[in-house]
Amino acid sequence: MSEKDSKDIKVERNPKINIQEADPSLPPSEPKPAATVLLVRTIEEAVEVFMIQRSFKTNFGGAWVFPGGKLDEYDLKDDINNYCRGLTDEVASQLLGVKSGGLNYWIACIRECFEECGVLLAYRSSGEVFGSSDESEKEILKEYRDKLNKGEPVLLELCQKLDLQLAVDRLAYISHWVTPKSEAKRYSTHFFIALFPEGQIAKHDGSEGVKSIWIKPEDALAQGEKGEFPIIFPTIKNLESIRGFTDTETLLKNKVEDQNNILTVEPKIFMQDGKMVLLMPGDEGYDDH
């Protein structure tokens, strides 16, 4: 992003979003690893993305976001790696630029997606993409989603019970954002994109997520600009990265091809002459703050 681009960014706190600012007298908190997924589908020659509005009681409350959250210790267990299909930890780690443990982000992404909107990215033992379920299977899915939302580490158990493999190869890595030091709760979030599996239903959990919607990226951005659809800066930039596509096949092909070119983005926000300023990597003065 050029200096001109950064000057054009509106940097102001949205009163409709609950952002917890850091205490300037304390050192910045360490970013916690997190993963988020953009679920997309094609409707009438247009791409739609699934978004959830967070409860105002939570951090970023009131904002419309993609399903996701921080990594749990159980996402790091080696046992669950044996239930991942199509991607090894070595390849995943290379994509993220880490020595090992990269696959944990794909696993966390799938778990968080299932917890927050009930969509399970997986394969059946036949190799078929996990889609629609009979009533018995729906009851099992509801039971395990509830357990996961209570913090119980049962994703591996669910895979074993339904004889599933996690569809990590259906997630393409698209961006990496680190929360500015000016905020109290910070995350190092890897964003992914995945095709919504036919036969499933995406719906918010009613706890952390209070509303949900399928929306065109262009509409989300336009409504956000009007103040009618509260979204934070990383969400805006990820929406911008998927607008203009008319089908998911072209969109996903584009993102898969670009996975090796992802740069880490950590905006810097500070007060200058009574105004809030945002600088992005590459902007003049970025390294001075």
Automatic annotation (TrEMBL):
* Family matches, as SUPFAM superfamilies: Nudix
* Bias (Basic and acidic residues): 1-15
Q: Which residues form the Nudix hydrolase domain?
A: 30-237
Keywords of the record, alphabetical order, are: Hydrolase, Magnesium, Manganese, Metal-binding
Q: Name one GO molecular function term.
A: hydrolase activity, acting on acid anhydrides, in phosphorus-containing anhydrides
Q: Where is the signal peptide?
A: none
Domain of life of the organism encoding this protein: Bacteria
Q: Which InterPro entries match?
A: NUDIX_hydrolase-like_dom_sf, NUDIX_hydrolase_dom, NUDT19
According to the record, the residues making up region (Disordered) are 1-31
Q: Which cofactor does it need?
A: Mn(2+); Mg(2+)
Q: What is this protein called?
A: NTP pyrophosphohydrolases including oxidative damage repair enzymes
Q: Which organism does this sequence originate in?
A: uncultured gamma proteobacterium HF0010_11K06
Species lineage = Bacteria, Pseudomonadati, Pseudomonadota, Gammaproteobacteria, environmental samples
